[in-house]
User: Fold this.
Amino acid sequence: MENEIQNKLNEQSEKIDAIYKSVEKTRKYFLVIIWITVIAFILPLIAMIFVIPSFMSSYMGSLDGLL
Assistant:
């Protein structure tokens, strides 16, 4: 009886370790996805804050020459 309980505990320990490894892989995957999202979406939005005013300035300057 005692040997059976020890075997069950060992099996559970192995399964818990496997679950932990899987969860860590998933956590790292989500972290990479978050960083890719920040780099691909948020940084261009921040860059547009600086690019759009200079573009509008040059665009309006070219229109002033026409009027």
Q: What stands out?
A: Helices lie at 2-66. The mean pLDDT is 91. DSSP finds one helix and no strands in the chain. The chain has one domain: 21-67.
